[in-house]
């Protein structure tokens, strides 16, 4: 819905053309609160198609570009250039796409998995920092009100000491060999050059892993994994089971699948503590269940008056009215808009404890994919993710520095 | 999200200011597909507050009006005046508000219950027809993909001959005397001058009744009703039970409540036939269940490849991703936009079998409320709704005319 | 399982032969706690078949009778004659069957509806009283632990002041014309001479109505009803909708159906108060849900440590292990055994607040059926059940007596 | 319920005294179909208590023994000695208890885990074979009608080629340190001398593993496992996660827990194939859900006319009436009775494809526990269960023999 609101944020999109569901999802999410104006874009590799999409979206012809390089250059040069670029292409162009904007100081929303390897992901994180730009990664399940409530429950101690984490993102969308039928999504997601061999881990496993980190505040210290290919002839892995040891010695499990026949979506998390447990499922996102030590179950609905401010502020409808995936994207974009505006207007940062995922989350996700793949290659041997290695190295370095400084 | 799309429809809103949830819901729904530009409005009775809302919504100061009369007059006079006015005020100003626009040929979306009595509702319907304007009524539950699927199931005969209809919209939102606490919604909805004595029937009962008509294609031929006030001291009825006889001699029940303690939302319908039955619930809107004669239950999710085109075209996300109330409003506004654009561009009508509810639906809703109230006043005696009386009278008149013409 | 336990109660059965599910259900329930010995019976009208069933059940040939009259006479004459007779025949022989035992002072369990009219039901109640015999009626849904818990919740005030009762027993078992296929159950239940015209009300409606009385402690003061025949050509009514006014001016609804296509069983109750509401469904009997005024839902499972003694003592398994219909019957027979033994051993009565239903409940059920039928015959006019008329008459008589005595 | 049926099977019980839930469960199950007479027993180690229980159960004083050795000897010597002994003691006396009866040719039902190590389990299996006695192990979840239906679905090919198995038996019953409070069950189940260190794997893991074998017909070829102790200070492991590779290269997962806070029972299985998937949960045992490749869900209820004979014959109630744990035990005892009677009466075996679990299943369960423990001890290294080693050795030996015989 158009407004003359001069304060709207200006956005551009790379990808999201014909047949690209995720691009549409971003646009739906951006529109909900009317805080973005989509002013520029490259909507696919086919020039004509892209221009058609641009026109249908109301993007001025002069700002419908052929390549993201052109777009980055031109928009950086305009006084009214875009505030943020959304990179919603297949995985193999995330790095170059995001880089083009970040190095010009333009904020970026980049789809997950952030890039195809952790070195390039790390490079993007560094680039964002060096150019004082935001790099946001849309793990949007964390923007559901009841996921925020779950994270609040954990941090408020209602589960007590955490004991176990069980997360799965097991979908059946590609349980048949769709890639043989010309199905666009299936084609690139089963192409190892584009999606990587552990495709399903990057695509769905990173969502599950991020959700577990977001709700519990813990990270995997080591993983032991198996990758499988359920669909004969498929060139990538379409199923993964992972044992995790999270920090604080909390064990866990993760299951990612694109071939869990019959499952519609399949993201679900259960977290256990010594005083209670919680469960949340994406297919019924407006509810959160809590079970106490005795075994009584309590079901909370988004919008209940007694919920935390973290979830309350993300609900747009009255109690009992369902919200869904687009509202979660809307929440991501709303939190992001708060921060983009604060930066634009030189106000204090709005980032709070439970906020939108950034490049660091994207990097940790890619490091998780790499650790899972390495474990599988070693027949399930325990692997320490690079995120932990790096962190430990930093701590060691800081220690060394301190010791040196202190002369002791 | 702003676009320079010249083809966007121009919209104005009456009501929907501070504290008015339904106005926000309309705006969220309008934004989803980016086919409307909100260009004018009166956002409440407080002039300053209204101007503030207008500014925050990007409405130009010159088109933020003090009254809907001013707005109707001014917008009708502009060459680029609004295509459609949304009337989202409390019930007692629906009639005057809608009338102001319709009589100037401006299309109207008017909240339900359409007006406070069937005479004024009838007048609006006639006014719309006389001025060739659309009068749409947002019974948006009928815009859910799985409600459309349900209607399709019935018309395709999967239930066989219909035998029973059971619908309820029983919410617990006002099970406590909120009107004593200054709660805005509760205050006007329990004020008989604004909401009418059978308040809950107009507010929630009309939704339930419309849903049953929409899915089955049947209408109530007579009703027997009881109205109750569960909250002591409340000035309106907050609960209603109704026995219905639908056309084709199909019996049914309707329960409307704003005081069903603990219920979050409470809209639910079950339709039975001699070959199968279906159930749909608003709190889990992306599923539709079907039970066959033997007792096997099948659950369909929106987005399944095998569903009808009627539901498929209304789904914006992939299989298993939930959608909710705002998407249903979005669907209403999308269907409406199709028709508004067709009229603007002098193309053939887009209205199809299963489309958005109009003034006729609003009128039938008000006639239902009146019949329910009349039955209650007569201790549950059977009452024939005026919609049926009118229809029968028309048929009789046509018959008479025919006989006269035929000389027989 | 056989025991030499001299203290076992001796039982006999009338009905429950080949093809009679309910007889088997009684026997399963009786066996669970091993407190009954089945020592006599008439298992159907076919002499040979009956003898075969008796033999297979370990009933001595000399106590396998041809008629219940013979059985009543012979058992009454034995020193070790049966303690209790179970009458599990079709409706039209309940009265004569139960009468034969009661008038000889033998306790009786008689299936519902107790008899075909309230006069004969009243006669049985009087006969039981006159002969100091127990007349129990197996409305066994009231013997589920979580139904007891529900009743306790209400009497403990957790729902506050009751506002609404909604009960349904809407099954789809006879949604097809099974009576045309020789189906035994369907044949007699659709024969008006055996099951009565309001067949479904006697068969299922009385269960629903009893359940509502049991949980809330309230009775219907008046009813307005519609009866329907969904299956063309069927000779009895197979569907009923009833509006009720319970005592304390609590409104309610009841729906009974044997033709609710697709429903497997369909007994479900919701009770609302001004502080909370509860729901119980027979198809998930080990759970009870409670919703508070805010809208939070709590689910209790049978076996939870915090439940009341009323439900705890009826659970035979550990937390989370489901129990079902046979255990409910077992509970009925256990409570009954407590009382039968107490009487036999001349100990104080064990009957407690929440106990097994008796002839009074059976009578009230038949009076309910009659009131529903009368209302239907009067096109839904309000009818006061005879139970209320009788009660009011008793009160009036008592008043009159008092006034007379007092001379005032 | 006592009968004079001379054909009843005579049973004796070891264990199952005061406070022992499982003994009661066996007795409830045995009583349902009235095919067993409980004639002998040792109901606990306390002589007086045992005698009291015996008396209350109607066991003649002369057959209430002090020890199972006495019982085995005496019963073997009687002409009317017991047909079957139920061993329902804590784990550490399973072996000696079962052995005493088997070596005298008395059939045995022995609780799981069969014994404390696979050598003794193997010995029992051999002993049963040598003495032509039945050794049955009550993995009674496999006796639910809908579990049988699930197994039938798989063997009928409705899932296509199997791709994944996910099973969990994750209960929260011991999420608190109940053993510190004198809780009887918790005390011995957390005593490594009685329950073994991998206690939860033997107690609940073997149920889950058996269920997966029963439904799919597959066995684990190797396992990788982690054991955890969630409750600080507890002397055994109370949680286990296992990755499995079943035969036919089907991967799977198993989770066993007695400390999954808030879970009531927690047994649940999902099986995936390339054409469909199924799910069954013990907390809702009368339903089985099937999901097809497209994502449509079908829910079957026990008692539906279209189900297989395997499940139909195990249902005692009408459609929609729930059954539970006791009926599952009843089904186990009914299948067992069929076979015991066939042997007694020298009729052909009644054992069918889907029948009661035996000592082989018990042995495989113990071998599974050992493999899990070994993997945990090796930090999750893959371990081949002895069942597979043994089988491969047998195949190799047979091959060698064949080659030798053939001279090639």
TrEMBL record, chains A, B, C, D:
The keyword Isomerase does not apply. Keywords: NAD. One of its GO terms (molecular function) is nucleotide binding. Residues 11-138 form the Gfo/Idh/MocA-like oxidoreductase N-terminal domain. Residues 147-279 form the GFO/IDH/MocA-like oxidoreductase domain. The keyword NAD applies. This is Putative dehydrogenase.
């Amino acid at each position: 819905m158009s407004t003359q609101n001069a304060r709207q944020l200006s956005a551009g999109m790379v990808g999201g053309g014909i047949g690209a569901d995720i691009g549409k999802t971003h646009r739906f999410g951006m529109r909900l609160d009317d805080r973005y104006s989509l002013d520029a874009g490259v909507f696919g590799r086919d020039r004509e198609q892209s221009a058609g999409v641009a026109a249908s979206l109301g993007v001025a012809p002069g700002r419908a570009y052929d390549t993201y390089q052109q777009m980055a250059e031109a928009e950086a040069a305009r006084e009214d250039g875009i505030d943020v670029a959304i990179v919603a292409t297949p995985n193999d162009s995330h790095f170059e796409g995001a880089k083009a904007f970040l190095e010009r100081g333009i904020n970026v929303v980049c789809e997950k998995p952030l890039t195809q390897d952790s070195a390039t992901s790390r490079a993007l994180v560094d680039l964002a920092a060096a150019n004082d730009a935001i790099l946001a990664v849309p793990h949007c399940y964390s923007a559901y009100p009841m996921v925020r409530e779950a994270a609040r429950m954990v941090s408020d101690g209602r589960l007590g000491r955490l004991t176990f984490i069980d997360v799965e993102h097991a979908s059946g969308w590609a349980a048949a060999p769709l890639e043989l039928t010309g199905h666009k999504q299936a084609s690139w997601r089963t192409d190892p050059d584009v999606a990587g061999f552990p495709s399903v881990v990057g695509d769905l496993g990173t969502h599950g892993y991020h959700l577990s980190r977001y709700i519990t505040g813990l990270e995997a210290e080591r993983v032991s994994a198996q990758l499988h290919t359920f669909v004969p002839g498929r060139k990538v892995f379409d199923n993964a089971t992972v044992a995790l040891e999270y920090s604080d010695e909390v064990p866990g499990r993760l299951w990612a699948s694109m071939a869990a026949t019959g499952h519609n979506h399949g993201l679900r998390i259960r977290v256990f503590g010594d005083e209670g447990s919680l469960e949340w499922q994406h297919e019924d996102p407006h509810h959160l269940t809590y079970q106490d030590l005795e075994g009584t179950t309590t079901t909370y609905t988004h919008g209940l008056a007694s919920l935390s401010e973290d979830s309350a502020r993300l609900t747009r409808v009255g109690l009992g009215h369902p919200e869904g995936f687009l509202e979660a994207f809307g929440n991501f974009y709303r939190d992001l808009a708060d921060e983009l505006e604060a930066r634009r207007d030189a106000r204090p940062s709005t980032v709070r404890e439970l906020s939108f995922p950034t490049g660091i989350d994207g990097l940790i996700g890619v490091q998780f994919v790499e650790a899972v793949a390495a474990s599988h290659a070693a027949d399930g041997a325990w692997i320490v993710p690079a995120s932990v290695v790096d962190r430990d190295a930093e701590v060691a370095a800081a220690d060394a520095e301190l010791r040196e400084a202190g002369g002791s």
